[in-house]
Amino acid sequence: MHRTSSGDDREGKLPDHVIDDLLASERRERMLSILSERSSPIVLDDLMRTVLAVERGAAPENISRQDCAEARTEAYERHLPKLTATAVVQYDSLVGTVELTDESVVSQVEQAR
Asked: Are 6 and 93 contacting, i.e. CB atoms less than 8 angstroms apart?
C-alpha cells in the first residue's frame, strides 16, 4: 500500500539535503522512476534488470545474469539502505521485492532535477 507522506512534519516533504543525497546517484534516480510507474512491488532482480536495460538502451531479456547479479549487489550495498532509511521504498527481504512507499518523493526528485 502506498503512503503519501514520509512522516516528515513539513507536509510529507524530505529535507533538501536528503533529496540531494538521493539524486547523487543516477542509478538510484532510475530505480525511483521505474518504481513510480508501478502499482505493485517488483522483485529486486527484475528492477535491476530493468534499470540496466534503460541505462544500456537494451531489452531487459538481453541483460546477462552476471550483470544483473552485480547490479543487485550494488543495490543492496548502496541504494536500498538510503531508500529504505528515508522510507521512500520498502524492501521485503522474505520475497525479495521492492515497492515505492512515498510517491510524493518522486515529485520532489523530479522538481529538484
From this structure: no
Q: What is the pLDDT of residues 30-54, one digit of tens each?
A: 999 899 899 899 999 999 999 999 9
Rounded to the nearest integer, the mean pLDDT of the chain is 85
- Please give the angle made by the CA atoms of 84, 19 and 63, to the nearest 5 degrees: 60
Residues with Cβ within 8 Å of 11's Cβ and at least 6 positions away in sequence, in order, are 5
Give the integer Cα–Cα distance in Å for 12 and 25. 22
User: What is the number of alpha carbons within 13 Å of residue 95 lying toward its C-beta?
Assistant: 8
Please name each of the domains of the chain with its CATH number. 16-112 (1.10.10)
pTM (2 d.p.) = 0.81
Helix ranges, 1-113 (H):
16-23, 26-36, 44-56, 65-74, 80-85, 103-112
Q: Which residue has the cell 543495490?
A: 75
Largest Cα separation within the chain, whole Å, is 44
The torsion of the CA quartet 109, 100, 21, 10, rounded to 10 degrees, works out to 70
